Amino acid sequence: MSAEPTVAGVGGPIVAHPDQGEGEHAHPGATNLLTKYVFSTDHKVIGVQFLFSSLVFFAIGGALAMAIRWQLAWPWKPMPILAKWLWSAPALGGQMPPEFYNKLFTMHATIMIFFVVIPILTGAFGNFLIPLMIGARDMAFPKLNMFSYWIMWPGFVLVVWSFFVEGGSAEAGWTSYPPLSTQPRAAPGSLNGQTLWLLALLCAGISSLTGSINYITTIVMLRSPGMKMLRMPMTVWALFITALLQAFALPVLTSALLMQTLDRVAGTNFFSPVAGAVANAPAVVGGGAPLLFQHLFWFYSHPAVYVMILPGMGIASDVISTFSRKPLFGYKPMVVAMAAIAGLGFIVWGHHMFQSGMNPALGATFMLSTMMIALPSAIKVFNWIGTMWGGRIQYTSAMLNAMAFVSMFILGGLSGIFMAATPVDIHIHDTYFIVGHIHYVLFGGSTFAIFAGTYYWFPKIFGRMMNEKLGYVHFALSFLFLNGTFLFMHIVGWHGHMRRIPDPTVYEFLRAPGIVWMNQFMTICAFGLGLTQFLFAGNFFHSLFAGPIAGPNPWKANSLEWTTPSPPPHYNFNTLPQVYHPPYEFSVPGGEDDFLPQTRPLPPNITLDPVMA
Amino acid sequence: MRYWSLIFALAAAFSVGAFAYAPFSADWWLPNPAGEPRHVVSTFGREIDALFVIILWLTGAVFVGTHAALIWAQFRYADRVDADGKPARPAQYFHGSQRLEVVWTIIPAGILVFLALYQMDTWANIKFRSAAPRTPVLAELTGRQFQWMMKYPGPDGRLNTPDDLFTVNDLHFVKDRTALIHLKSADVIHSFFLPQMRIKQDAVPGMTIPVWFDCDRAGRYELACAELCGWGHYKMRGDVVVHETEREFQEWQAAKLAEQGRSQLATAPGDPGGDEK
């Protein structure tokens, strides 16, 4: 079937997409409260559901981070207020037990990655934006879409529940390397918490996978007339490539999680060469390989890093072009760069395993492929700067956050080169340098993109504007505290500060006054960063009810979602829009306005350079 | 509004400043012996540090360059309106430049390929089994929750003979001699980390991995576990003693062996009052 539907003459009446009109695909508007707002098949409601659920988990994950930072700055000092109800062990006098610290960072990473960043970027933005931006009425499979949200709930419940089971939550790190994670006596959290962790991730994985299938099908099949692949906004391109990444990589993680679950509950030994070696238990020959899990895990989890950054790149591209009032610099190279990042993303997982005991000859090839992934990333950075160059930059909250995304991504990307270099990685592997790098990419990158996207599309989602002044304050404080928190992680890291240790002062070389000072400074900034997010939450919820009415196109942007009312009605479009050009035709010479919606043809004297646009 | 660019400039200056100050402070730089913060004690340490510094310079230059461009674009092209509220200057209508794309693809590609190839030799020297020194094994190291167990060949120079010496969290070797160890794990994954010698290698259950390193300053150093291995991971710390001479090392070994003999005697089965003899 052709993805390019027929149109009855340019400018003439638009024939509804055969799959979308009132045919088999149509589903009636919801009538009662439950089907409209809870068990909804409307992609917009599902997007909002993902957004709200994940923001709640953002708060939980952030609170765990504060406790981690407290312990690192003032080891074994009882944390004021929180200690009492977070780790109630009166015998310890409010001190944090070291195994609780292990739970903190394990669950912080798990929640942030699998229940915050991925669900917001793909679940919330993906669901809300894809049909609107390509001119479709809904996702290809609305019921599957509803399922992809509700299957998250067992995951949410299991993650929270795992804190309260015997032995507490998982504590083998978010990477969950066996045998630590598979042998019940290796760690207190390896009792039931680890099993719940595995099941929670399986739920999140099913959610991502069903979502991805929906995104791919929707983008391939349901684009409105004239919406060629190379006329899609970068956000849609990014979500499309992300969905492909998920669809190809997730089955591998799922198999690894299932094998680990079987190792734990069914007595298999996929990942343990010897079973029961921990805590003086008699050893039994198992025949498994711990490195097998690492290969399977990183085959997904390295691409997962791009799952968490590619949609951010798409959002940043759209926001930067809109607020520079200028066409995106090098649309096609940007698409190719994203595809290259995704493609290379599949052959670089070994760089997580340079020190793992894997054959070092493989390290040499993985070094080269990892270095190469810096290349499309660099192309993207240069293109964003090129987009702003010569533009008319409007400093909105969304734009500031998008520019912060670029700035933070530069630092986060460059610090990645240190790890790609195998000899240097020997020293910095498993140190705080890695933690600093990943936070520049994931907090500085993904989270700023989430903020940018929220400020940018909030008027479309809820029909009201957010408060720009509060947005400025939130941005400025976040940006400064973020640098204060994560920059010094690189320095303590190259000084040798291992990650995942609750008390660095056990080591003489980490008792240096400079290291102690940096740990405390980082913690103070982290608390500042955490508190600053209350500004965002306040702004968000206040604007939800009391923000000024937005109107359909408050930013004067070009893509299709701005041609519908805010919030968009059921089915999004009355008639499917006809699309004439990519969404970045800003400041077209001779135009009466500085923007040109995709639904309006280009002036006859303008022809687009076929290579660049 | 153009002054928003200053907050980006501030963050960039903060980053560059911190990284530029770091080499001048022993606390902020790569870990070296306490008394000699400028001296890198191992051969691999010197090679790795040199590569680290090259990458720091290269990435630093790219960071400064891209941030200068970013901040200048933010400052120079900020939207300004004239007296009538109309934009003082229209935005350029420009879709990109293929020539620029090619230039900023080829130059970084060249630098990255150079960096990757330039690192290969050092990597091979440190990790490839074919590069392992042809010396007798110093010791067999087994990580287990939460200690490093060392097994040295005794005076006969062979492992797994009755005169083997066992120690816990106590690694000894001789200055300027390449030490070769066999790394194992008894339970979960650990990671053998000598920060001052820039050596790290995971200890994986079911595998025996050779690791080699040297040190040109006698003294005491630290051995850490770098891979999460359970609640006691943070205190899985070992002492590393580098002896000035082979003779000193052998004296230590003899003394330890004598001590071991006594303690074995003390706990010999059927001889509860061992030290009454």
UniProtKB/TrEMBL annotation, chain A:
Keywords: Electron transport, Heme, Iron, Membrane, Metal-binding, Respiratory chain, Transmembrane, Transmembrane helix, Transport. Coiled coil: none annotated. It is a multi-pass membrane protein. InterPro entries: Cyt_c_oxase-like_su1_dom (IPR023616), Cyt_c_oxase-like_su1_sf (IPR036927), Cyt_C_Oxase_1 (IPR000883), Cyt_c_Oxase_su1_BS (IPR023615). The chain crosses the membrane at residues 50-72, 111-134, 146-164, 196-222, 234-259, 297-316, 328-349, 361-386, 398-418, 438-458, 470-494, 514-536. Its main location: membrane. It is found in: Membrane. Residues 33-580 form the Cytochrome oxidase subunit I profile domain. The keyword Membrane applies. Residues 1-25 are annotated as: Disordered. Gene3D superfamilies: Cytochrome c oxidase-like, subunit I domain. PANTHER family: CYTOCHROME C OXIDASE SUBUNIT 1. Belongs to the heme-copper respiratory oxidase family. This is Cbb3-type cytochrome c oxidase subunit I.
UniProtKB/TrEMBL annotation, chain B:
Coiled coil: none annotated. The chain crosses the membrane at residues 50-73, 102-120. It is found in: Cell membrane; Membrane. Gene3D superfamilies: 1.10.287.90, Cupredoxins - blue copper proteins. Its main location: membrane. Keywords: Copper, Electron transport, Membrane, Metal-binding, Respiratory chain, Signal, Translocase, Transmembrane, Transmembrane helix, Transport. Residues 22-130 form the Cytochrome oxidase subunit II transmembrane region profile domain. It comes from the Bacteria. The keyword Nucleotidyltransferase does not apply. Binds a copper A center. Residues 1-20 form the signal peptide. Residues 134-255 form the Cytochrome oxidase subunit II copper A binding domain. Its cofactor is Cu cation. Pfam families: COX2, COX2_TM. It catalyses: 4 Fe(II)-[cytochrome c] + O2 + 8 H(+)(in) = 4 Fe(III)-[cytochrome c] + 2 H2O + 4 H(+)(out). It is a multi-pass membrane protein. Its EC number is 7.1.1.9. InterPro entries: CcO_II, CcO_II-like_C, Copper_CuA, Cupredoxin, Cyt_c_oxidase_su2_TM_dom, Cyt_c_oxidase_su2_TM_sf. Belongs to the cytochrome c oxidase subunit 2 family. Subunits I and II form the functional core of the enzyme complex. Electrons originating in cytochrome c are transferred via heme a and Cu(A) to the binuclear center formed by heme a3 and Cu(B). This is Cytochrome c oxidase subunit 2. It comes from Paludisphaera mucosa.
